[in-house]
Amino acid sequence: MFRTIVIILSALSLASCGGGGGSSEPTPAPAPVPAPAPTSLSFSTDVEEIYIHNIATLTWTSANASSCEASGDWEGSKELNGSEQLTLRDPREFTFNLKCSSSNSNVEQALSVTVNSPYLYPDHWDETQTYFNNVQEQFKNPVGFHLEEIWFKSLTIPKSRFSSALSDIFLEDPEFRSDVGYDTWINYKGSTYHLSCNWVPQKYGEGVAKIIEQEQGNFKNFYSYENEGCNHPLPLKNSDGSYQVVFPGHDEGKLAFAEAPFAPSFVFNLDTKEFVDMKLPLGSHGQAIFDYDLDGDDDFITNGFNHTDPERGNTELWNCGWGIFQNNGFNDFELIPLNIPDDVLNPNRQNGFVENEGCGGAMSADAYVEDGLLYVAYGDFNQNRNNADAKWLIERERNALVIYNANDLSINEVIQLPAPYVEENFVDLEYYEEAWIGNNGKSHDTHVQFMDIDYDGDKDILISNQSYWYEKTSVLQIIMNNEGVYVDETSERLFNWNIKSGGLHQWNFSDVNNDGYLDISTTDGCGGLGAASVEGIPRPWGCQKKVAVNDGTGHFLQIIGPMEIYQEVDNTGTDYTNEELTGSGLGAVFSLDEDKRARWAWISPKDCNDGCYADGNWVLYITSIDFNLSTGPNGIDPALVGEPGFNEFYYLLHNESAQKAVIAGEYENGLEHYIATGKAEGLLPNAKSISVIVVDTYDSNPQHSIN
């Protein structure tokens, strides 16, 4: 205080002193203090719209501010300059406010980020459940495997994701139809080819080969070839990357006229688009592609070439009908006969019968070669009943695995496989006809395939089991190879799976959801209910048109079926019917194109009903999904919510706590459970870490082995 007073007095003294008596000049006014610069703010976000569980980065820069405060969907004091990452988990609009202030001003800005859910669920569970319940009331045996709601709602692809493109075509063939026809596809030089061929029951020599060429869902060409009947188109890949498509002859329509089912075979040239006669009559019921000589060219095994050597005629038992067609180039095959265990051949019947003469047989087979051995699994297997000195004793009506020496085709071992699933587990089955007693049995085992479905390094076996008449079913029997012990695990490995469907003569393996595991697509007819009639069941319901994903351990769940493929109205509002289901036209043939997009091509008569000819006018449909299938809920890509590689089917199947929580409604799907708790608990999101064999990716064509 004293010092302050002194300063004031000194100032007064100075002001009163002066030289002479003149007046002093006025004191200039002090310069004005400049106003503080106003606060400024730049505030931005790197995204305006994202999916749930993704990150938005907020960035801001302020000037002349002493503090910044957040509000809205974030809060608290913020640095004057900075950025912040926020994980946004709820599907809504988020608002972020930021106010930066100084002593004399402030500025406030707001940003918004829209957060969407990628989940889209099917809305036809109640409808589907009603159909199953109504059908089950009519039968003693099950109508499917694991038909619970969780497997349908969490994984079925919604109907709204399908659409159809329509094209008019003209075919001058009154007998153009599907009937007993089997399908596959191949991608070649930018185009996808949907392949089909058929024969007609009770009609002599009435078959048609059908090829639809499309590119990314756009119809390009249709090729057809009238013939006596054919079976299972076989796209054979050559080591140089080229393909030839074999249509093996088969005409069971001739059986009604007491003739063997032989028919000419032919091959389709994908480069010239020509059908070429193979000069090879076959009665080829069951066949499969494999590489017999391991030269990189696909070969195939088939039955029905008992009489393919014209020099031998039709009376000599030189071959019992099974053999390998070794591929030596386009339309160039060497026929290698393959004996069923205990066959006794007679090279020349002119000299009379030989002791124990006779043939065994089978209706289907698949094969592979490994370590100098040829492994062949036979369906509808039976042995030479005339052989009193039989060495290999297999029970009647059972299937078998036969192991040959790959060099001389001598038989090393014969293994009896588990009984067909339907015979072992179902009641009141009937024989198709008396001739099947002791031979085919009550299960018609129409197709066989080796595939290491659980990726553990050994090949498992899949066999079609078809039962007939009232308790008609079509079951994909799954026989697991547990270190050389073959165990039926069918009921444990099929989910959301209808067995009241058309026959199961054909299926294909491909990686439909691009996760490095092979999935199944089935293809066959639509006669699902057999002799029964159930009111209110729509035509498509019983069609054998499935897409089923592999969880990575050999369990399969149907994500697409006929009710999704065959819809009444496409997304353009065009009304269409399903007349091809009556026999005319062509049923939906699945493909996975080079961009991994699932599509179906099918043909129906135009403007007429119930198996009509329509004066040659047909409508060709290409039905597509609007996205590429992946492994998240209902086929979405789990990377959309920041969890690439997550597998919804695997996670729910192998983590009981997650499955129960979803059933209880605590989480809307398994992926939400994984994000909330499962990841922190260390639950596995997929099978990759436990697979013995790991494959990164496959091309889009059907596969015959996992590697």
Computed structural class: mainly beta
Helix content: 10-25%
CATH topology of the largest domain: Methylamine Dehydrogenase, Chain H
Total beta strand runs: 39
CATH class of the largest domain: Mainly Beta
Strand content: 25-35%
Structural Rg: 36 Å
Principal-axis shape equals elongated
Low-confidence stretches: 1-20, 310-317, 569-583
Q: Architecture of the largest domain, according to CATH?
A: 7 Propeller
Total tally of structural domains: 3
Number of helices: 9
Biggest β-sheet, characterized? Answer: 5 strands, mixed
Distance between termini? 96 Å
Oligomer: single chain
- Widest β-sheet, arrangement of strands: 2-8-7-4-5
Q: State mean pLDDT (0 to 100 scale).
A: 90
Signal peptide: 1-18
InterPro entries: Integrin_alpha_N (IPR028994)
Protein name: VCBS repeat-containing protein
Organism: SAR86 cluster bacterium
Describe the structure in your own words.
The structure is a single chain. This protein is mostly beta strands and 707 residues long. It folds into 3 domains: 40-116, Immunoglobulins (Immunoglobulin-like, Sandwich); 125-635, 7 Propeller (Methylamine Dehydrogenase, Chain H), CATH 2.130.10; 638-690, no CATH class. It is elongated and about 155 Å long. Residues 1-20, 310-317 and 569-583 have low confidence and may be disordered.
Summarize the structure.
10% of the residues lie in helices and 35% in strands. By secondary structure, it is mainly beta. Strands 2-8-7-4-5 form a five-stranded mixed sheet, with no helix packed on it. It has a five-stranded mixed sheet with strand order 31-36-35-34-33.
